[in-house]
Design goal:
By secondary structure, the protein is an alpha/beta fold. The protein folds into 2 domains: 151 residues, no CATH class; 104 residues, no CATH class. It contains 8 helices and 11 strands. Pfam families: RACo_C_ter.
Length: 259
């Protein structure tokens, strides 16, 4: 699950959305955790569409971890390899081919890998990723609507948890996982639950603060909130059906197409 909290010193609105395991490599054909050999960063030559994979530990590729998946999808989309629906555009390129799960892009050939197969990302993988990112974005926008706020009203966004510790902000906005905001508004907290538990053990004052924060919370069951399903369906595109929510990303995609 992805937990979402929006509020201030006086009140807190909370919700949880089912993001699935895609951000941990689950549900992805060659998805793995962030172990040595996992593709964790990625770039693309805009002229040849040839990839450059960066792996954990600098080892030969064995799969794709969550951070790599995010950057791969964002990069393929921004360079016109993927369309807004997450499908491959009809490009004549040796790395784009028909596979067992539909169209796929070859990230690394077998002779480049520490695996007995090519490492690919396919349209089913991308669909699973879009479902996950769409659930999170729809959760954010739905809770904001419930409290009468807009993304522009947010003064700070705090990212916590394992995935939130190493997420690439530019890619997260490009695909519509996070709203398009000034990156200076975003703070990485790391493992907040562990740090919070440790602080509570050491301080009675902190424990009282936690109890007080819980009293300020109002929970929303997203599946019962009118409009959540519509928000979710609108988020099932890259980055969203409403490109007006992502003007910078839309402009960048248009410029890449001209090139």
């Amino acid at each position: 699950n992805a937990e979402i909290v929006i509020g201030n010193r006086d009140w807190l609105a909370c919700a949880a959305c089912s993001a699935g395991p895609a951000f941990e490599g689950g549900g992805i054909t060659h998805g793995i955790r962030a172990v040595e050999g996992a593709i964790s960063d990625f770039s693309l030559n805009p002229e040849t569409l040839e990839p450059m994979n960066i792996t954990e530990g600098g080892k030969a590729p064995i799969g794709i971890c969550g951070s790599g998946l995010l950057i791969i999808v964002a990069t393929l989309f921004e360079h016109g390899v993927l369309n807004q629906s997450g499908k491959f555009n009809p490009l004549d390129h040796p790395r784009i081919r028909e596979g067992r799960s539909g169209q796929e892009y070859v990230l690394a050939w077998q002779d480049e890998c520490a695996a007995d197969h090519d490492i690919v990302i396919n349209e089913v993988d991308i669909e699973n990723f879009i479902r996950a990112k769409g659930a999170i974005f729809a959760g954010i926008t739905t809770v904001l609507q419930q409290v009468g706020l807009q993304v522009s009203d947010l003064e700070r966004i705090i990212l916590a948890g394992g995935f939130g510790s190493y997420i690439d902000l530019d890619s997260a906005m490009s695909v519509g996982l996070l709203p398009e905001v000034d990156p200076d508004k975003i703070l990485y907290l790391g493992n907040g639950s562990l740090a919070g538990s440790w602080m509570c053990e050491l301080s009675n004052h902190i424990r009282r603060d936690v109890v007080e924060a819980v009293r300020k919370m109002t929970g929303f069951e997203l599946s019962e909130v009118p409009g959540f399903k519509d928000q979710y369906m609108a988020s099932m595109f890259l980055p969203h059906t409403d490109l007006g929510l992502f003007p910078g990303i839309a402009q960048r995609v248009r410029e890449n197409k001209k090139e």
